[in-house]
Amino acid sequence: MPYGWPFNPFAPNIPETQTGEPQSVAQGDTLHFFKQVALPLVAPTPPAWALNYYLRGQAGAAINFQDNGTGQGGFFEVSIPPATTALWLPGDYEIAGYVTNVASAERHQVYLARINVTANLATLPDSQDTRTFAMKMRDNLEAVLQGKSLHDLKISEIERTHIERLTLDEMQKSWRFWDTRVRMEQQQDRADAGFATGAVILTRFDGIT
Question: Domain of 149?
Fold first, then answer.
């Protein structure tokens, strides 16, 4: 195991490096993590293995990267500079990781999940609307219900979704639907950040028969 793995305790100004793949990464951020893989033990000299990742999800936005080439005994380090992640398009991707024997090309999948690339807020214009689709739908329906823009939204299009001649009751039901979606998104964001979601978990106890 490399000395100081997974982080150097004598460098307090450097953020602790995580072990394992992240669930999200922001454009322009340094992507740095360690990965441990159980590799076959071959004596006397273990073969060299490479760790590669492939992200797919948006047309024309394929993302590929690999480890630093410093893997020792199944421990790999991945470090991607900000200049590279700044070019990644925001969105949800499926990510797969593979280890490959450099000599024989033997390959094994060691990771499969989803990852979210978020926008670099530092570079977005002040006029950028970062609300989700659910937030936009809820806010526009709320404006209708408050009577602020009834005529404008009687027939409207929000990101290719039509709101056309809804009755008051239909608008109220639609608003409740999108408000619930927004709350679910916010709970998920809090859960991803490691905070309590505030959701109430109901438990049913069945009697012993």
Answer: 133-187
